[in-house]
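User: I'll paste a sequence; please echo it back and then give the predicted structure.

Assistant: Echoing your sequence first, then the prediction.
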Amino acid sequence: MTTNVFLIAGAVLSAIAALLHLCIIFGGPAWYRFFGAGERMAVSAQAGHLYPVAVTLLIAGMLGVWAAYALAGAGVLQPLPSQSLVLPAITAVYLLRGLVAAAMWLFDRRRLSAFWVWSSLVCLVYGVVHLVGLVQVWGTL
């Protein structure tokens, strides 16, 4: 299998998102607020509770695994378990998350904020990059 540039790019994007989540943990409450985690998460982090750290670590870990699956799909790493199911699922999650702001705009505009718009756009880009790469390697999965 030849390497797939789009899935490599998807892996890099997921890895960047994972690293950013780790930075948020070390950045503390101000970073939780800046990146839109919500006031409850920021206050909880400020109080020293483990919940924000655990949730953020879980997200970072998941994004790291997604990066590994994208690299495996790209042919950079050895194939991973259930790769033909997991890669489409990752792509679908990114694309569906990317549509959240549009759904909020249609059904609940009061909750629509800059966080939802920007994070949805980012996820939509991630999803499209994964989708293009996935379509290119589909026959080899």
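Residues 5-140 form one domain. The two ends are 10 Å apart (CA to CA).
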